[in-house]
Amino acid sequence: MLTLITNADIHAPESRGRGQVLLAGERIQAVAEEIDIRGAEVEVLDAEGQMLLPGFVDVLTHPCGGGGEGGFGNRTGEISAAQFIRAGVTTPVGALGTDSIGRSLEVLYGNVMGLRDQGLAACMYTGAYRVPVPTLTGDIARDLVLIEPVIGVGELAISDHRSAQPTIEELRRVAADTRLGGTLKGTGGTVLVHVGDGESRLAPLRDALARSDLPVHSFYPTHVNRSQALMAEAVDYAKQGGYADITVSTTPELVAAGDIPGLQALLDMQAGGAPADRLTLSSDAGGSLPVYVDGELQGLTAAEPGALLEVLQQAMHEVPTAVTAVISALTCNPAAALGLADRGRIGPGRRADLMLLDPESGRPRKVFCGGRALLSE
Ligand code: ZN
Hints:
It is a single chain. By secondary structure, this protein is an alpha/beta fold. It folds into 2 domains: 2-53 and 345-376, Urease, subunit C, domain 1 (Roll), CATH 2.30.40.10; 56-337, TIM Barrel (Alpha-Beta Barrel), CATH 3.20.20.140. The chain has helices spanning 81-86, 105-117, 140-146, 168-185, 203-209, 228-239, 252-256, 262-271, 306-318, 323-330, 332-337, and strands spanning 2-11, 15-24, 27-32, 42-46, 51-54, 56-61, 89-94, 123-126, 150-158, 190-195, 219-222, 244-247, 279-282, 288-293, 296-302, 354-358, 363-369, 372-376. The longest helix has 18 residues, at 168-185. The structure holds zinc ion. The site of zinc ion has 4 residues, from loops.
């Protein structure tokens, strides 16, 4: 089945102007100003006035919920396929977090496979905050090689009072096992690292990489916009070839405490010299966010995938020159960081994971994943 999208304003993510994109089954067959389809049976979709973007790759989500700190009553709920689809996320990557006891990798696997059943190209990490890393098969590399949706380890915690305080040797071994698994699988092989507000910041990663044969992108730190000091270290990390992930879900209270909001963090890190292709944005969907009323903690709410779309909408309204950098940080950069070579760009041979975005409302009108229309408004 062929679908021809015409008259779209193509952001591949670089702006290609008006053009046509031909979808064949689950892949993109061609991208050009005009595609010759004579003789072929094609469904034509006129996308006049709409932006065409790759579907978002959200490298940190908690589809089976998160939280649980402070007791079972503080657990957050599941994130549905509809929430991801409405936000334009076609590849949510699921993780456990602090709690790998009340929740398990088996439960996460079930959620991720459920998202796949509903059309999304969902993936997952094995492991959680802790070391030794919890796994499904008893071994990190075996999980990657034998369990198809597993593409890495995450989110392993450092510089946080809730982390297992991993030693440098433990970090090295986890990265090496993950890299071996990714090498054998032919995709993935990265350790997504939750960086807390501890004083050591990225030092454990630098120490683990020093005098090892591991490439710098073996570790992929997230939440780097937690403070100015951590962000400065993440700029250096990106300059050395690593990827750094900015969490876009925040609250006014967290900003008051030092969090840098997503768009500002991206712009500041680029201004600081971080290469634009090394920066990514993720939602931490399902992660718990504290709610305060008059300075009193009232409970928890959960981060949502829609926060990614809000950053893009903000850039479109306030900093149009940053739109390509934002789209890249939501698509091709995270795909490259995780070794998912088949997605994150609009180009021949890539997965047909796409969205048509209304530039006025900043909302997706259509979302395709693997060529299948998941949203049609
Ligand atoms: Zn985290």
